[in-house]
Amino acid sequence: MSMTFSLPDGFVRSYPPESPPRGESRWLLFRGEDVVVSECGSTVEVLRATEIETLVDAPLSELAYLGQLDGMPCIAGAIPPDAHLAEGLRTMDLRSLFEHFDPELYAVAGYGYQILRWRRASRFCAFCGGATEPVDGEWGRRCGSCNHVAYPHVSPCVIVLIHDGGDRLVLAHRRGRGAMRSLIAGFLEPGESLEAALRREVREEVGLEVDDIRYYASQPWPFPHQLMVGFFAHHAGGEIRVDGEELDEAQWYSFDQLPTLPGPISIARRLIDAFVVDVRTRRSAGRSE
Ligand SMILES: [Zn+2]
């Protein structure tokens, strides 16, 4: 099972980083936070090298050769947020491109987004404020004054589907998220294991205790640089109680009476879908006995 934003097997990363090759390539070109695409009818595509030369009349503020996807070089670049776009080009935010790109290219776009964003945020040293320079042979950037080296960040988060051992699961409503209900999730704190973070988040957000914690899968999430680590956990005690701040409502739902759920881009949805399949499988096994 391949998760959204996981770099596919057909992608060969360019590492140590090298200059982009000449010739045909696909460009993940960012203007501010958005991707520049060419639009023809309902088809949305990333730019090709020739289109970069002929249609983009703006200086590149960042450039990173990411690697090859099925043999095709993929390059990430950034133009200024106020750069003018030629006719036939438009920008779309990375989330909405999920419906337009195939999963492999979409994962590469997420990778390029994180690398460029990190570079933009790392021009100056976090310790002394000195200017940084790229380190040869890696993504790192070294401070010219104090020698501190910084690398792209990845922030682990746990996300958990709490079930009752039968056909019910806990879904919560986050303030300001419309009708959508989703799973409990949160960032790891320094010094925590994944399991400890999971227990703490569940306790803090819905006041429950859990046991039988089972790993499901993980998913990179480039908004801005998380790794979502998904689990199932069994409800071991306590009644649901929300803090009323971050979450304003949470309750048990039966697998066949689910509210508005997150879209298929998210590991939350994958966990919920897997749970529903599991309940159905258990039920039909029960009937056939
Ligand atoms: Zn420094």
What can you tell me about this protein's structure?
- The chain is α+β, with helices and mostly antiparallel strands and 289 residues long.
- It folds into three domains: 11-121, Nucleoside Triphosphate Pyrophosphohydrolase (Alpha-Beta Complex); 122-152, no CATH class; 155-288, Nucleoside Triphosphate Pyrophosphohydrolase.
- The protein is 21% helix and 36% strand.
- It is built from four helices and 16 strands.
- It has helices spanning 49-55, 103-121, 194-206, 267-288; strands at 11-13, 26-31, 34-40, 43-48, 62-69, 72-79, 89-93, 132-134, 141-143, 149-150, 155-163, 168-174, 184-187, 209-221, 226-237, 247-254.
- The strands form four sheets. Strands 1, 2, 3, 4, 5, 6 and 7 form a seven-stranded mixed β-sheet that branches. The chain has a four-stranded mixed β-sheet with strand order 13-11-15-14, with helices on both faces.
- Strand 14 and strand 15 (226-237) form a beta hairpin.
